[in-house]
Amino acid sequence: MSIAAKSVLLIGFLVLAACNNPDRYGAGGAGGAGGAGGAGGIDTTGLGDPNNPTSIAYFNQTVGDRVLFAVDQSTISPEGRAVLTAQAQWLLTNTGYAAIIEGHADERGTREYNLNLGAKRAAAVQNFLISQGVPPGRLRTISYGKERPIEICSTEACYSQNRRAVTVLSAGAGV
Amino acid sequence: MTRPVRAPFRMFLVTLCALLVGAGMQLATPVMAQEPPRIVIGSAVIEPMPIAAPTFIDEGGAGDYAREITRVVISDLEGTGFFRTIPEEAQISRVTSFDGGIAFEDWKAINAQVLVTGAVSVAGDRITVKFRAYDVFNGTTLDGAALQFAGTTDGWRRMAHKVADVIYSKITGESGYFDSRVVFVSESGPKNARLKRLAVMDYDGANVAYLTDSSSIVLAPRFSPQGERIVYTSFETGFPRITLMDVASLQRRTLEEQPGTMTFAPRFSPDGRTVVFSLERGGNSDIYVLDLDSGVLSQLTNSPSIETAPSFSPDGSQIVFESDRSGGQQIYVMPAGGGEATRISGGEGRYGTPVWSPRGDYIAFTKQNAGRFHIGVMRTDGSEERLLTASFLDEGPTWAPNGRDRWSGKRPGLVAAFAMKSDAQPIHSGCQSC
């Protein structure tokens, strides 16, 4: 990648951070974007100490920020329910945070269909969290369809990592 | 393309042609006027029509322009698969004056059915391109195929495309599409950190211009029927939103912004006044239309399944779309005002992104079956399904304005056009940053 392209990438990140876009993907992606704080109306959210149970880092790493889905499905698995139950408890304890739930699909499907599928996954997570008592006003959803894979795939084991819904926290409840 | 052929082969070719012509002359009774040269697209097998297009004459200051314009004209015509140009080395006659006489016998002798002559002159930043296309057998100018284009030199490529458009339309009876632009998403970077930019280019991949930076995801752009606006899906607000851009000013605005919803997959109606798209709420998407002048929003479907990828019929009376209401993704047609939908796809696999052809006769689609993506076409009632391509990620076909050719985003950055011929060979591909 050329230096020019790198700088475009960097600018892209800053712009995204500026509008508090949940466009953070990939393992550690949230940390990378969250760290790009600074001037110019950019909201900075401290990740905190992963050993501190009230930190975003703790939520991401210990509670678990994501659930995975079966092919072409938006039903939450038993493992997923356990993760989301813990997410709900954390959100009910740490009331200063809002969340955007990102729905994603693997690349085996058309763009339009996968945008829908990602939306269904995000909605399924949102509905589960609401059923656990999280106020709807603290939750928003977005679908990236197949536009934001975290893994570059040619095997099912890899595709499964891309079929995900990620709960991305930000400071400030009541979005 | 038209690289010089090795001499012995060329000689053989010329000799063979001469023999064939000679034999024909012997058999022919008094020479009668023939039908003008004509290609009927859609016939099962089309033999490329031999044409001659000697390098356009430099009538002053043209320099490289004359040669380059000739090259683009030839490339446009040959790219359709319907024409074969006779190499300049095989030509007997030289055209030294645009208005001088044509030695038609010399062009008949090399079996050229059509002769294209042209001249280019440049003064300052102004360029003038004129051309004539002749029916060689009848020794006449093709009706309407003698024109002159003038403008600034930076428009030379468009003028060459216009020359090719006229020749193509006179011979096939179809409108040309060489002087048209394609709007597409230019992608760069690794797949898991892809940068996407809205871009336009000429149909042949030249003159790429970027319309957005890569700071937000953009998807599936479409030109308005008049070409002055583009509608697409943008994540610029943080959420997927259908967005309208004015091509000249690059000003853009989000069209539909209800909180808690996502809008995507927009397409213009044939009159350009409304946009049909998908609106998602709570994980369920339905099809809506938005009147661009009044801002009135109307819901066309109301179903708990996925309804998306709508496309108007060219007369504006119907909408084709995809839905998984029957379980898997299939293609349906409904009245443009909503109402009962009829399923038209029925083969194995999943069908998506249907697009009605501008002529109204076919619907192109993406099909997924057994782990492969295909671009295919079917009649509007779902009959005569044919798959034109097979690859891993070949989706989202687009029709050329004349309804004969389709573009589809193939690999990232690659744009391919497929001619509506029985063998569906790629007729052109242009690579952007791949």
Keywords:
heterodimer, A: 175 residues, alpha+beta, four-stranded mixed β-sheet, disordered N terminus, B: 434 residues, mainly beta, Rossmann fold, six-stranded mixed β-sheet, 40% strand, elongated, disordered C terminus
Could you tell me the strand content of chain A as a percent range?
Answer: 5-15%
The chain-level structural class of chain A is: alpha+beta
**Helical stretch count of chain A?**
6
- The name CATH uses for the topology of the domain at 49-172 in chain B is Rossmann fold
What does this structure look like?
- The complex is a heterodimer of chains A (about 180) and B (about 425).
- Chain A has about 180 residues and is of the alpha+beta class.
- Helices cover about 45% and strands about 15% of the residues of chain A.
- Chain A contains 6 helices and 4 strands; from the N terminus they run H-H-H-E-H-E-H-E-H-E.
- Chain A has a 4-stranded mixed β-sheet.
- In chain A, helix 4 (about 80-95) crosses helix 5.
- Chain A starts with a helix and ends with a strand.
- The relative contact order of chain A is 0.17.
- Helices cover about 15% and strands about 40% of the residues of chain B.
- Chain B has a domain at about 50-170: 3-Layer(aba) Sandwich (Rossmann fold).
- With about 425 residues, chain B is mostly beta strands.
- Chain B is elongated, with a radius of gyration of 25 Å.
- Chain B is built from 4 helices and 29 strands.
- In chain B, strands 1, 2, 3, 4, 5 and 6 form a 6-stranded mixed β-sheet that branches.
- Chain B has helices spanning about 5-25, 65-80, 105-110, 155-170, and strands at about 50, 55-60, 85, 115-125, 125-135, 140-150, 180-190, 195-200, 210, 220-225, 230-235, 240-245, 250-255, 260-270, 275-280, 285-290, 295-300, 305-310, 320-325, 330-335, 340-345, 350-355, 360-370, 370-380, 385, 395-400, 405-410, 415-420, 425-430.
- In chain B, helix 2 packs parallel to helix 4 (about 155-170).
- At the A-B interface, helix 1, helix 5 and strand 3 of A face strand 14 and strand 22 of B.
